[in-house]
Input
Amino acid sequence: MSKRETQRKRAEEAAANQRTAAYFLAGAFACLVAAGCIPVPGMDNAPYVIIPYAVGIVAAGLSASRMLGVSLWRVKPEQLEEKEESRVESVARRLFVGLVASLAAIVGELFHLLVNGLDAGFGLSGATGGAIWSLAFFAVMGVAATCFARARQLMGQRGR
Output
């Protein structure tokens, strides 16, 4: 295989990985939106749940804008590789921030439950309802963290 064909194949593999990473990022964002709709006790007034949750949403938005932004730039061919490296590194950092924020929101909600106990169940029967909503929040935020981690892993992969 010639050098040019090898480079083309690597570029195609990297583009496929980045498209898949974009799908995982969209999944993480959807999970964060869904988690915001779950009436868990800690989302009412606990900054140690709300702030990491908000940071996760901002990180997802910034990652998406950076993933899509480069395709809109007008870059000379000789600058393209340098811009691509810069973009991949910045997206990977933002995805890591989203991963850590998602996990911090889970820890914050756990802390809230340990300190305050299960609050009213928001339409479900008392503590049982609070437990159900909390488990749903943990599951959805866990999926969001997993999506952030997988997207970060894919952004770091280059064509072989």
